[in-house]
Specification:
Blueprint (H helix, E strand, L loop, with lengths): L19 H19 L4 H14 L3 E2 L11 E6 L3 E6 L10 E6 L4 E12 L2 E9 L12 E8 L5 E6 L19 H5 L13 E4 L14 H14 L10 E6 L4 E3 L5 E4 L2 H15 L8 E6 L15 H14 L6 H9 L2 E4 L3 E2 L21 E4 L3 E2 L10 H13 L4 E3 L9 E2 L3 H5 L4 E6 L1 E2 L7 E4 H17 L1
Parallel strand pairs: 1-2, 4-13, 4-14, 14-20, 15-21, 16-18
Antiparallel strand pairs: 2-3, 3-13, 5-6, 5-10, 6-9, 7-8, 7-10, 11-12, 12-22, 16-20, 17-19
Helix pairs in contact: 1-10, 5-10
Bound molecules: manganese (II) ion (2 copies).
One manganese (II) ion binds next to α5.
Length: 469
């Protein structure tokens, strides 16, 4: 007898019915994710670690391969800040690629090109925030610095300070409540202005012989320290890609350890399972692609963002190298148009403390699994991709067949706000795209929260998608 169809839609908490073995698999997956998250706090670090892990299981830089056949695994670094990987499938590329696309940049504070200054015997870095943040959340928390800086001889100097137990951290001050009367009258958007996000980096004067009368002795101390330890001078900061991020490590939340708090879940909590689902492929039917893009938080621009042709070039190179080495542009356009993609980006989870911004009937809930979002955008669906009904049916059909739980919803209620992902930039190629990712609490905060069971089933969902679509 055919399975009885459920008349009412039901979306359940997945911890309710999970078996012992599966719960163990879920908890183990979460441990591996936390480890990867802790060493991947910037887009550069995520890409570097992803390449290392990929090479360990046989992925090769595509430039080193003359031709490609089914089962070949290749990747291309996109300016060291984005990454695209492929596992070549058995079917002809005219059937299209199966694509998972996430982003690996997260909101943070970047150093200004001329960042160092001294004021009243303390030394600071000036910053310019990157992405949508609530500025007040970045004061009085332990901060680390991660990134690279170049000297004019072209040498790259890597700097990571604030992560080891005995490292110093960095710090943005806030006003004591005793004197906060005027500050507290301001709106949350105003009381910590962007220009006040200055990070304390030192407070000792340079006492070296002959330098006692240095005009800015405290700044001189820091400049000397940086030169001694990294070989850099003040002017080199113009080359810097230095990011101030929370110094905290990812931690379990709750007595039952149901959740994980961490920096940069958006969007590494989707990038990681997308990468793992790709790593699980040996000789798939269709060619599987994993895109890990940069600059999503500021509009997917620059040569490493999803709008860059470098991602497209990689797909073109696969087409060329699985064929006779040449590319017919019309054929390529048709291959991309036949492709199918999950835009694997996070969305908000319904938060009962802030229920007024959500429509409870059209919200994703923590621990209810992957959130499928037909469209994102803001105010009248402005600026969004929208998945077609038949594509949604194809996806939900695959999930049903593979017993993958999913839920759906919008990012907040109508006119409450909104957001975007990379899906619109990919849909312009004609491919079918839908947003599908892990629901998050406190999205874009320095320390965000997700549910372990959502992460686990999202991994299984991504895997089912690339293996079955
Ligand atoms: Mn995102
Ligand atoms: Mn975001």
């Amino acid at each position: 007898m055919a399975k009885e169809k459920k008349l009412f839609a039901e979306y359940n908490n997945l911890y309710k019915d999970i078996g012992k073995d599966e719960l163990e698999a879920c908890m183990n997956f979460a441990e591996e994710y936390k480890t990867f998250l802790d060493i991947s706090k910037t887009e550069r670090e995520f890409v570097k670690n992803a390449i290392e892990a990929a090479e360990d299981i046989g992925f090769k830089d595509i430039s080193k391969k003359k031709s490609l056949k089914a089962g070949d695994k290749v990747y291309q670094s996109i300016k060291d800040k984005g990454l695209v990987l492929a596992v070549v499938g058995k079917r002809p590329l005219t059937d299209g690629f199966n694509i998972l696309g996430a982003h690996v940049d997260s909101p943070r504070l970047d150093l200004k090109p001329n960042p160092i200054y001294e004021d009243t015997e303390a030394v600071y870095f000036k910053t310019h925030y990157y992405g949508g943040i609530k500025k007040y959340q970045w004061t009085t928390i332990p901060l680390a610095i991660h990134g690279v800086i170049y000297t004019t001889d072209g040498v790259k100097h890597e700097i990571t300070v604030g992560e080891k137990e005995d490292d110093p951290i960095f710090y943005i001050t806030d006003l004591l409540p005793h004197l906060g009367n005027e500050q507290m009258k301001k709106t949350a958007n105003e009381f910590i202005p962007g220009e006040d996000l200055n990070v304390v980096i030192g407070g000792m004067p340079l006492k070296a012989k002959g330098k006692e009368n240095e005009k800015e002795p405290y700044k001189a101390f820091i400049l000397k320290y940086l030169n001694d330890n990294y070989g850099i001078c003040e002017k080199d900061f113009v080359t810097g890609e230095l990011e101030i991020v929370p110094a905290a490590k990812a931690r379990d939340v709750g007595f039952d350890r149901a959740f994980i708090a961490g920096y940069g879940h958006d969007d590494r909590v989707c990038a990681y399972p997308a990468l793992m689902a790709t790593f699980a492929q040996e000789k798939p039917n269709k060619t599987c692609i994993c895109m890990l893009t940069d600059k999503e938080e500021i509009g997917s621009y620059a040569n490493s963002g999803a709008q860059s042709v470098l991602y497209e070039n990689f797909l073109m190179e696969i087409l060329a190298k699985t064929g006779d080495g040449s590319v017919d542009i019309l054929k390529f356009r048709k291959v991309i148009a036949a492709s199918k993609m999950l835009s694997t980006d996070v969305s908000n989870a319904y938060d009962p403390k802030y229920s007024s911004v959500s429509d409870p009937k059209n919200s994703a809930y923590m621990s209810h699994g992957l959130k499928l979002e037909k469209y994102v955008g803001a105010r009248g669906k402005s600026g969004t991709n929208e998945a077609t009904g038949d594509f949604v049916a194809e996806i939900t059909g695959i999930f049903e067949k593979n017993s993958i739980p999913w839920q759906t919803g919008e990012l907040g209620k109508v006119d409450a706000g909104g957001g975007g992902t990379i899906s619109a930039y990919m849909a312009k190629f004609g491919m079918s795209v839908i947003d599908a990712g892990v629901p998050v609490w406190s999205m874009h905060a320095p320390y965000e929260m997700i549910s372990k069971i959502d992460l686990y089933y999202t991994y299984l969902a991504y895997k089912a998608f690339i293996e079955n679509i």
